[in-house]
Design goal:
The complex is a heterodimer of chains A (160) and B (620).
Chain A: H1 3-19, H2 23-28, H3 32-62, H4 66-78, H5 83-96, E1 98-99, H6 104-110, E2 119-120, H7 123-127, H8 131-134
Antiparallel strand pairs in A: 1-2
Chain B: H1 14-18, E1 21-27, H2 31-41, E2 47-50, H3 60-72, E3 111-115, H4 147-151, H5 161-174, H6 207-216, E4 220-223, E5 226-229, E6 233-234, H7 292-300, E7 304-307, E8 310-317, E9 323-330, E10 340-351, H8 355-364, E11 383-389, E12 404-406, E13 421-426, H9 431-434, H10 438-447, H11 452-463, E14 466-473, E15 482-484, E16 499-502, H12 506-526, E17 529-530, E18 541-544, E19 547-552, E20 584-586, H13 601-619
Parallel strand pairs in B: 1-2, 1-10, 2-7, 3-16, 10-20
Antiparallel strand pairs in B: 4-5, 6-12, 8-9, 9-10, 11-14, 11-17, 11-19, 12-13, 13-14, 15-16, 18-19
Helix pairs in contact in B: 2-7, 2-13, 5-13, 10-11
The chains are: A mainly alpha (160), B alpha+beta (620).
The complex binds flavin-adenine dinucleotide (FAD) and iron/sulfur cluster.
Flavin-adenine dinucleotide (FAD) binds next to α2, β8, α8 and α13 of chain B.
């Protein structure tokens, strides 16, 4: 595995935790590489590596203990001044295909990032947003489920 | 009759067009202009259609570009699929701001003179506003045509429901309406021809509609002492469903064939609506009616020429008031302010540019009409949004934008005292009111600090239970609500921009208050959490009787050149022919003297079909 493949793999594992969709489902969107690449371009190599290694370390230390993971992940990532906002933007990216610009306070502390602006990554990113399957629906204007399907109760996928 | 131009003459250049003497010059390629073009060209009359916006590419390719624009737009507003075009600008819902006291706000295309600011929009591309309309197609009800006689408010129409009825049927065929007649019998009288069915069966109601109906059907409300019983009813809509075989009787014995994706060359069988929940702004499979479906029928005759990116800038009349020509400005590129100008000639002239733009063009040409009512009596439906969370998952965010609603408060003696209203149940949840589902995602991630499983549970809790009731409220004609122009406000090509003055009278505000009360009762009955709140800083904020409400524009612009029996009190006659200019028609919702509680397009389409009969008489 070269360095980049490894990082994408770590990014995938992080994404699984953030979204509660399985690696298999995330791969199935076909968006993994595009998102990794986009986030890399936006936050830069150093921040990306810091995020992934921090995550990796927590994974290692907490193994399959979910409560312990949650505690550490909140302490070292979500409440971290630098990594928290980045992580929240990655969550939203998976759910609606849009990168949301980091908050001003982030810029004041860590500086401006040239590529950090709010934008929809691509038409397919919009269509593959995880929000839609989460609520038993489909992105507005794409992946239509077929005539009359809307009269049946929604099929909201169980979370394993 | 000039039937010497055979062949498919859709590609015409401005020079050729300018040296052609057309039977009819039509301004606007929306549904009004498209109906006129189709009806005249099918009879062999040579027509020219000027369209201010772009859209030469009527093929799938051009349409797919709009779709991609939509997918990648961060703001998915009604005009998101269409690029900004300073040469033929259009209002955008996202552009509105509150007024600064004492001066009109001219920051955006529509100059807002207040007191109420409106976020109403329309669209300047080939196909006009139907390119992003929702395509709900209820008829008006008979009493709407006699507001003065029946309720001593508003203005009577010069025609009644019965006279328009056959044209309603023609319009329902043209727009490909799916629906069930039984659900439309809201006044208890027989408003449809015996045995009539719509071309296609009704769209199945959404699971959300059914959930609401279960709890709400049979609910009684008191309207000024009259008891009304509420029921969730499906709406007729112009989108492809399953053809109704019984429609044959109203279709010369033929089965109804839905219109498919627009193409100049073949008439494909239309795909059924697939429930994309995206009818506004753009239907990906073209199951929804849009005016290009009518326009291509005109173009296929070979007697219709279409010139996009060509803005009518002046209607020129002679000493007798007869229109001699229409001046235009044609631009090649949306990126450049360069244009060339010229004029087109015809026997008759038809302005089909919509209620705001017809008035704008006439006033910019110095033509106010004898009645001085050009631009006056501007109407639109104010909408009051109310939103709550149901106690169970109702599968919100699925189906067409809206499949059902409550129509029982459209009619009644209470109309002497306050406006009637109709309630839509929005399958797209709180979107219109709060920006959901995006705002929910932000809140859950940024404020509730959820991720993973908890995030997913919370998304379902907050979104799949949403109920938004959008109340469409009648606004009567009032000369002080108006469209005007001023040389102080022009667009990049130097055309004067419309200035809107709008205030909401007590007659309508009383209905706003009542509508809020009724929707509260609905939430109470359903055991739903009412989350409705109105921000005093909202651009559409109004106060009435000690309470505040935020109103939204209804996109049903009408009434700027109302029809009547008399030159002194109206702008056009019942055929939408100008009283002052014998060879000029102003067509569309601008001619309507009232708008009741119906989305305007089916009615304006019926009126256009009726007008084309008269145009044909003029031309023969
Ligand atoms: C979001 C939205 C939802 C809606 N939903 C519904 C609904 O569910 N049901 C319903 O009945 N109605 C609905 N409407 C209203 C409906 O879209 C309009 O009533 C209808 O499209 C008007 O048709 P029209 O042909 O009269 O005008 P338009 O469609 O506005 O067409 C006018 C055309 O003229 C062109 N034009 C303007 N000025 C000039 C000029 N000077 N020179 C050349 N061309 C010019 C414009 O570019 C435009 O293409 C909705 C509207 C919106 C915005
Ligand atoms: S629900 Fe979808 S397929 Fe149906 S008309 Fe609307 S956008 Fe088109």
């Amino acid at each position: 595995m070269n360095a980049k493949t490894l990082e994408i793999q770590q990014f995938l594992q992080l994404s699984e935790k953030l979204t509660a969709f399985s690696e298999f489902q995330l791969q199935g969107t076909g968006q993994l590489e595009e998102y990794y690449e986009a986030v890399y371009q936006i936050i830069g190599e150093k921040n990306m590596i810091q995020l992934l290694t921090t995550f990796d370390k927590i994974q290692d230390e907490t193994a399959s203990d979910e409560t312990a993971f949650d505690k550490q992940f909140r302490a070292k990532v979500l409440s971290d001044e630098k990594l928290g906002p980045i992580t929240r933007s990655i969550i939203k990216l998976w759910f609606v295909g849009t990168w949301y610009q980091l908050p001003k306070s982030w810029n004041e502390t860590f500086g401006l990032l040239e590529n950090d602006k709010t934008y929809v990554i691509s038409p397919s990113a919009y269509k593959e947003g995880l929000l839609w399957p989460t609520i038993g629906s489909h992105p507005m204007g794409a992946k239509a489920p077929g005539y009359g399907t809307w009269s049946a109760p929604p099929e909201i996928p169980a979370i394993d | 009759m000039s039937n010497d131009h055979g062949g498919l003459s859709t590609i015409v250049d401005h020079k050729t067009a300018a040296s052609t003497n057309y039977d009819a010059v039509i301004v606007g390629s929306g549904i009004s202009g498209a109906i006129a073009a189709k009806e005249l060209s099918e009879k062999g009359f040579k027509v020219l259609i000027l369209e201010a916006g772009p859209g030469k590419d009527l093929s799938l390719n051009g349409y797919e570009k709009y779709l991609d624009n939509f997918y990648t737009a961060t703001s998915k507003d009604n005009n998101a699929p269409f690029p900004r075009n300073p040469n033929a600008p259009m209002p955008r819902g996202t552009d509105v701001d509150s007024l600064r006291p004492g001066e009109p706000n001219s920051d955006n295309f529509l100059v807002q003179n207040g007191p109420l600011v409106t976020d109403t929009t329309y669209c300047k591309v080939v196909g006009g506003t139907t390119m992003h309309f929702e395509s709900k197609t209820p008829r008006m009800i008979p009493e709407d045509f006699h507001m003065k006689d029946n309720y001593d408010v508003g203005i009577n129409w010069p025609i009644d429901y019965k006279e328009l009825q056959p044209y309603y049927r023609t319009a329902e065929k043209e727009m490909g309406v799916s629906g069930e007649v039984a659900s439309q019998n809201i006044t208890g009288t027989d408003n449809y021809a015996e045995g009539y069915v719509f071309p296609m069966h009704g769209m199945p109601p959404s699971y959300l509609d059914q959930t609401v109906g279960k709890g709400l059907n049979g609910m009684k409300v008191n309207m000024k002492g009259e008891e009304h019983t509420l029921q969730v009813r499906p709406f007729p809509q112009g989108r492809n469903g399953i053809p109704n075989v019984e429609y044959k009787e109203f279709n010369d014995g033929e089965n109804f064939v839905p219109e498919g994706a627009v193409s100049l060359h073949q008439a494909e069988i239309g795909e059924r609506c697939q429930g994309n929940n995206n009818c506004t702004p753009i239907c990906p499979v073209q199951a929804k009616y849009d005016a290009r479906k009518t326009l291509v029928k005109a173009l296929r005759t070979g007697y219709a020429d279409l010139l996009p990116q060509t803005v009518a800038s002046k209607v020129v009349v002679d000493d007798n008031g007869k229109v001699t020509e229409i001046e235009y400005k044609h631009y090649d590129s949306m990126e450049s302010s360069e244009y060339e100008s010229g004029s087109f000639k015809g026997k008759i002239f038809v302005l089909a540019a919509n209620a705001i733009e017809n008035a704008r063009l006439m006033l910019a040409s110095g033509l106010q009409s004898t009645s001085k009512l050009m631009g006056k009596n501007f109407m639109d439906h104010p909408y009051l949004l109310t939103w709550g969370l149901l106690p169970e998952v109702a599968g919100t965010m699925r189906g067409t934008v809206c499949t059902s609603g409550i129509s029982d408060l459209r009619s009644g003696e209470f109309r002497k005292d306050h406006a009637a209203f109709a309630i839509d149940i929005h399958n797209d949840g709180w979107g219109w009111a709060t920006g959901s589902p995006y705002t929910n995602l932000h809140d859950i991630v940024d404020n509730m600090n959820k991720y993973g499983k908890e995030l997913r549970h919370e998304l379902v809790n907050q979104i799949s239970t949403q109920l938004l009731m959008a109340v469409m409220i009648e606004l009567l004609p009032d000369p002080s609500n108006s469209i005007t122009v001023s040389p102080d406000y022009t667009d990049r090509l130097g055309n004067m921009r419309p200035i809107v003055s709008l205030s909401i009278p007590d007659y309508t505000l009383k209905a706003v208050e009542k509508a809020r009360q009724v929707t509260r009762q609905v939430f109470q009955r359903l055991g739903a959490e009412d989350h409705t709140s109105y921000d005093p800083l909202d651009f559409g904020y109004v106060s009435y009787n000690g309470e505040g409400y935020a109103l939204r524009g209804g996109n049903h612009i009408a009434g700027t050149h109302i029809m009547g029996d008399d030159k002194a009190t109206s702008v056009v006659d019942k055929y939408q022919k100008s009283w002052d200019h014998e060879n000029l028609y102003l067509i569309g919702a601008g001619s309507m003297p009232s708008i009741g509680t119906s989305n305007t397009t089916l009615t304006l389409a019926a009126l256009c079909f009726m007008s084309t009969k008269k145009m044909l008489e003029d031309l023969i």
